Batch of 4 targets.
Target 1
Amino acid sequence: MVEITISGAPGSGTSTLVRRICAEMGWRSLNGGDVFRAEAERRDLSVHDFSELCKNDLDVDRSLDFRLKQAMTDSSGPEVLESRLSGWWAHRLDIDCIRVWIDTSDEERARRVQNREGGEFELRLGESSRRQAADKARYRSLYDIDLDDMTPYTLVIDANDLSAEEVYALVETEMGAD
């Protein structure tokens, strides 16, 4: 059963945090992005093409999110679930777990993605801003979720000026508090 959810916009550092938690705790994780990529591959689509399909067919998003919610409630499921909406799902399903949101600005996410994947900063910034705006609109339409509402989260970390180690230390403290 899920012990902790990790959420944040792409480039916020969620995957880095999940890897560290799993290494330290010996836990298993499920990444919503991995589920997304696997479904794209199953459909023989590129990630970009599958993303476009999701924009036009909201039932695809719903089916992927259903899989994540099933994993969260499975007693033999992973202890860590990483996805943009995992904190919301845990909150709505009344799952007693730590729900973390990693908060970063568009600029910081663009810088991190640029460092990881290359490209020009202004291009990465535009991509980050557009993706965040599109996701906000889609989640509002699909589930009446406001990504700016931090109500579901037990820990919100402003990670703009924090290292991965500092973010982990804050989460580790929260895990020890339970």
Note: The radius of gyration is 16 Å.
Target 2
Amino acid sequence: MSLWTPGGEVPVNRRAEPETSPRSAPPPSTAPDEQALSLDDLTPEQRAQAEAMLAQMAEAQSQIAATPAEQIVATHAAGLYELAAIKLHQDPPMLDDARLAIDALAAVMDQVGSRLGEDGSAIRDALHNIQLAFVQINQRSGGT
């Protein structure tokens, strides 16, 4: 398993085999604050694994914090475009899902597209292209 970061994929090591002696969960009546485990409650192996995961999450957060928001938003906008394209290329096309992704991308671009720097115009072009593709595929599928 990996965690996406602006600097690339960061591997997250997970134990492939189930725990031989799992810890029992606190009873449902326990308050949320009392349900949290402390690192002191873990075996040395579990503690090392938890600390490594926490370090990886802290590094990922640090990378995200160091990346300009416009780049992250542009990446997510591009993901919406890709989602719409994937949905449109299914047999049969998944028009409702594609429409949702396209509408979400249009909403992002309407609200913040002008603040996405160089990527903004490329994403706006991609939005127009995917909207056109949607209309063509919808017409071929007998939609309105």
Note: The chain has two domains: 2-66, 69-140.
Target 3
Amino acid sequence: MPGTLPVLNRRAVEFALRASLALGCDIQPLSIFARKNYFYPDLPKGYQISMYDRPLSVGGHLDVEAGGQTRRIGITRIHMEEDAGKLLHEGFPDSDRKSYVDFNRSGVPLIEIVSEPDLRSPEEAHAYYSSLRSALVYLGVTDGNMEEGSLRCDANVSLRPRGQTALGTKAELKNLNSFKFVQHSLEHEIRRQTDLLSRGQRVTQETRLYDPAEDRTYAMRSKEEAHDYRYFPEPDLLPLQVETAWIDEVRDRLPELPAARRQRFVREWGLKEQSAHVLTASRPIADYFEAVATAAGDGQAAANWVETEILRKIKEDKIEVRQPGDIPLAPERLGKIVVMIKDGTISGKIAKDVFEMVYATGKEPADVVRERGLGQVTDEGPIRAAIDSVIAENPGQLAKYRAGKTALLGFFVGQVLKATGGKANPELVNRLLKERLDRS
């Protein structure tokens, strides 16, 4: 707010330290806040508090999987600054232009993560942005809501002739707020610059905006060099010195990040790579899965239930999962359902019904099975009676089976399970059926 003096927020510094340490950056012994002077209508005091030549941290990297290989993307620096307001434009770039200013984010602390020019395609940029968001959400430094402005991306694009090392003039794409927009805007900008250079024209250094409706970029303003901002040390904030003990404390509390957790899920729980990717995309879902797997003693079975049934319920019920407890079904109860399938108490088919009832009522799975009489039938007598009945009702299918069409075994299994209300043990049904069908 104009006329008020800034005060450094300790919690914001801690969040910045988390991100810096997780990305392998070196925390600088002394960082200095700077005043960046320029006039934008979304910063009414006429300057922005940022860091310039003495950022909080430098170096670091993020490993990104793209195109079937792992690429290491370097991190140049991470610095702290304050957010500006939000400009809403209508009619751009046409003549009937209107702009609106939302000041709600003005002064909110943020970090800017500057990457090295290591990205070589829009697909890699998409993967980098997605991986970075996932890591930052895991760290708890942002909710990652791109639509609300919690995470935004500015992308610099420059082309160079094949075989040359010097990068060409860059254009900056400003305020991209989705993975899809990042990729599409870069694809368009590459086409635009390629067209200019192929016709012997030059690329102008400027800031551009992306219009997703028309899938094109257009000029917002010319890009001045950094010294034109007239940086100087912020007189109202002291230089920032972070004690080594605090850095060590923050490092010790860092959570396991998505890439490391994926590898561990594959190694310790025996998950397939695809399942590990799905389950680690969200930290609370990963926590929930691990609690289910621990209760069930079976990682892949737990993964199957979480991927299919739990994620389906979350989508159907429009649940925002910020922590495992936001999911109505306790992970321990889902683990018990998995155990009941494994020990033969219930069949896989009946387990789906038990899941729905436990999810809706919060009851213990064992109580639901007992109250509804859903226990699996393992007594051979009733199963043999059902087999005899099914065979008697399907003489034509029996004849085809005995004539060599053995794939019909699946048909008979399904009919017996249907006749027993899905309660018969499928393995027992298979064995007894084969004995009966193969009998002349």
Note: The two ends are 91 Å apart (CA to CA).
Target 4
Amino acid sequence: MTKFVLDMVDRKILSELDKNCRISTILLAKKVHKSRETVKYRIQQLQEKGIIQGFITSINPNKLGYYMFKVYLKLENIPEEKEKFLQTLRTDTAIYWIGISDGAFDLVFAVLSKSIPEYYSNVNSLLSGWKHLIVTRVLGSMVDTEQYNKKFFLEEKNSKVHTFGGDIFSYTLDPLDGKILTLLANDARIPILELSRKVKSSVDIVRTRIKKLEEKEIIIAYRIAVDFNLLHKEFFKAIVYFRSLSQKEEHALGEWMKCNPHSLYYIRSLAPWDAELEFVVDNYPHFNQIMNDLKKQFPHMIRNTEHLIMISEYWMPAYREILKGSEK
């Protein structure tokens, strides 16, 4: 696989796009001190090389009445059956995200459901046909997730925090909201004029609707998906078990994650463990160094850790399925 070395201009462009990929090319050009034409060309090149995989609108399913549950699996070494199982998962409209990994688990996926009984029934039905493949399964529930900008582009020490999950709200989307969200989900960088034309509404109305979706925290951020492998980076998930966690300690851990230049997510879970911390790093020794620093910073809090290296991840049908009911 070809790997690319980014110059500082590319890094600045990627950093700004991950903070808000709907930023105008004119404003982005001012921020990186280059011409509009140069910035437009650079973005196109980053896409063509496969470094930018897409422009993502982060939508909070909890605001639309969905709980997010997690399934962690250790699988038998039967390659043909693994691939068949993955194909089954990829067509399941309840699955929001899949991560293929190595380490404590081979596969992790997130399931959206309107209720706990619905989730229980769906997961048992889904996994019952694969008992010969599944060595271990662990079920969990996401409480909430703090999402950080990809600070590693510029080795930044601070980040705006976007939180999804949390309390369940069943906001009802009307057809126009649904159409807007569906288009943004597929291309967060779509120009407002093109978006308005496709949903057959005025620019002012569409802009107002987007602002309201942001205020309700249905839309929480506009980011980029990147290929970490092409950037000489590796994606690790640390599974963390706490001895205890006071409100003060939890706040301190959140601040530590927010300021770490390699952190991506801080996930609070109801599972056999207490939290999942995700990082983009240079290699395993780099990740190990971060974990050692974490343990030194919080010696009385952290009891034990495990880890996964995330090989690949996919956003699945449920990402769009939650919007279908309002598109008509």
Note: The chain has a mean pLDDT of 92.
